[in-house]
Design a protein that fits this description.
Shape: globular
Order of helices and strands: EEEHEEEHEEHEHHEHEHEHEHEHHEHEHE
Bound molecules: zinc ion
Number of helices: 13
Strand content: 15-25%
CATH architecture of the largest domain: Alpha-Beta Complex
């Protein structure tokens, strides 16, 4: 089958690889209809992770079941499904409690597994014609048959639940004001999620005009960090009060408007801009170590943020990858009911063969490339 593989920094290619096959009775093989390039794929693309050469990338996958193992009882050939980026067993203590992003079984020695991702287990990704889905009955979410809402449903595998998770980690309630740092796909999904949950005001920080325009399009107030200090801007917009909740949707490669990386920059801003007793949700990626990090602290995975102010203000912070299964069923039904339309951010649809070009343009943050969906 054809698949996109990682060769080295800024080097991916679409090549023939061995077909995905049933390896355990609980597996299914899914023919991929849509698979997205994710902002977090760029961490690997840029050579900032330990991902191995030859890995098939792609963790935002949906498609149609082609084949099921002997132990699969619920899922059937022909079912249209969304696959959470988390691979989870369904029976370990974390899965039993709903924390499927921290499954203890699928990636020995580590809590959590995913398709096509550094340090997340031996699983190939879905930027390919077919994908092997472990524990398929547990992991696959069935979708209505046909092709309707394809571009909305393709957001159910990661970024819509992840954006929603950011607001939940922050403890958002109806009527709250919410500051989202980063208007990439996850930040925009967090802003949309806050809106759908009844946020009073939503502010979205970025400097790219196309992204800020999308934030405005969904009713958020854009805050351009190249035009001045974000905390000052937010304080002015909130009459000196600050916001109730903050969502971090950038991660450790956060940079200032001249391009210099500041791993702690977003947390610094959030602690200052969120009011006392407010909440912060961190869904941007922070790795346990980054040997190529911009400072000695980050090379060891340490982040120097104003913990004293955080403590003094009695703020709370929630972190970590989204347990997609906690949200994807309800979000699917909100899509079907036309209550949420995440597909607004899709800027490009491409064939798998064009994905190499797609990576390069998305990585360069080329104007207009907000979200790329591949159709293998
Ligand atoms: Zn993703
Ligand atoms: Zn598990």
């Amino acid at each position: 089958m054809r698949a996109l593989v990682y060769n080295g920094p800024k080097d991916v290619s679409v090549v023939d690889v061995p077909d995905a096959t049933i390896e355990a009775p609980t597996d299914a093989i899914v023919r991929i209809t849509s698979t997205n390039i994710c902002g977090s794929d760029l961490h690997m693309y840029e050579g900032r992770t330990t991902v191995e050469q030859g890995k098939v990338l792609g963790h935002e996958n949906m498609g149609v079941v082609e084949e099921v193992g002997a132990g699969v009882t619920r899922l059937k050939k022909g079912d249209r499904v969304s696959l959470p980026f988390n691979i989870a067993c369904g029976h370990c203590r974390n899965c039993q409690r709903g924390s499927t992003a921290f499954c203890l079984e699928v990636n020995p020695g580590f809590a959590g597994g995913a398709y096509g991702y550094a340090d997340m287990g031996p699983y190939d990704g879905g930027q390919a014609e077919h994908l092997r889905v472990p524990f398929a009955d547990f992991n696959a979410l069935r979708l209505p048959q046909g092709t309707e809402h394809e571009l909305d449903f393709t957001m159910l595998s990661d970024i819509l639940p992840t954006g929603w998770h950011g607001t939940r980690l922050a403890g958002m309630e109806p009527g709250d004001s919410v500051l989202v740092i980063g208007a990439g796909p996850v930040g925009l999904m967090a802003a949309l999620s806050a809106k759908v949950q009844g946020a009073d005001q939503v502010f979205v920080v970025d400097q790219l005009p196309d992204r800020l325009a999308l934030a405005e399009q969904i009713g958020a107030t854009p805050v351009d960090f190249s035009k001045g200090d974000v905390v000052d801007q937010v304080m002015e917009l909130t009459k000196g009060v600050g916001v109730d909740r903050g969502v971090e949707a950038v991660g450790w490669q956060a940079h200032d408007h001249s391009g210099v990386e500041h791993p702690a920059g977003t947390l610094d801003t959030l602690v200052k801009a969120v009011r006392a007793t407010g909440g912060i949700g961190v869904v941007g990626v922070f790795p346990p170590a980054d040997p190529n990090g911009p400072d000695e602290l980050m090379q060891e995975g340490r982040i120097a943020f104003p913990f004293g102010e955080f403590f003094t203000k009695g703020q709370t912070m929630g972190t970590g990858q989204a347990d997609v299964k906690k949200y994807n069923r309800q979000l699917r039904d909100l899509i079907i009911a036309d209550k949420i339309q995440p597909s607004f951010l899709v800027s490009h649809e491409m064939s798998l063969d064009d994905a190499v070009d797609g990576y390069a343009r998305f990585d360069a943050r080329e104007h207009g490339y907000t979200k790329i969906v591949l159709h293998p």
